[in-house]
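Work Package 3 (structural annotation) set out to generate three-dimensional models for the target panel prioritized at the project kickoff. During this period the team completed the workflow that converts sequence records into discrete structure tokens, so that structures can be stored uniformly alongside our sequence database. As a representative example, we reproduce one entry of 68 residues exactly as it appears in the project archive.
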Amino acid sequence: MLSNIGFPGLILILILALIVFGPNKLPQIGRAVGTSLREFKDATKGITEEIQEEFKDDVQAAKKESLK
């Protein structure tokens, strides 16, 4: 979805955001979005690591089973 915006579309969105929110609120909104994205990234990274550990444990258990 976002890959279809392009550079002119991004400029238009930024100009509209500047008009709607004003120059004083725009940095605060940018910070909030950045913080939210970082928290989302950290949460998904944690979940991914947990899933990988589970699969790793299952594979090791299956290898031990097959050697018996």
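Residues 6-67 form the longest helix (62 residues).
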